[in-house]
Amino acid sequence: MNNKIGKRSRSFTLWGLFIVFILPLILAAILYATRSHWSLESDPHGELLNPPWHLTADYKFDQRLWRVLYVTPQCLADACELQQAKITSIKEATGKDFDRVDTVLAITTEIPEGLYIMDPDNHIILKYPLDTPGFYILQDLRHLLKVSQIG
Predict the structure, then answer these.
(1) pLDDT tens-digit profile of 38-61?
(2) Least buried of 13, 65, 68, 122, by fewest C-beta within 10 Å?
(3) Strand 47-54 to 66-72 pairing
(4) Vertex 87, ends 133 and 67: CA angle to 5°?
């Protein structure tokens, strides 16, 4: 009878070692292999422009920075200040990536009114309505800065 208890004890020990050491490695390998299915990143909050809009030479910038653009056909005092404050606060909220981002106020009729994110190659890639909360734009911008190999 003592022999049966010893075998049972050893099998519990082996199963315990397996559960504690081997099973987490197997689960980690499975999660790593299927990480694209487990992504917590959300879709962009803005409208992804596909293909991206290319700017004319009048609006090209020399510095390779990400830009948050506020485009309006005319600058009305209150609305202009409000949107300028929004995009400035988005830049300030980027934290360590502050130097990689710039804000631009464009008064033009060539581009529809709205808020935009422009990549360092001067392509407008995301478009937002004016009433979009700044936090949503910041989330998208942070994601772009994180995965970007340019700028």
Answers:
(1) 655 566 788 888 888 887 666 667
(2) 13
(3) unpaired
(4) 115
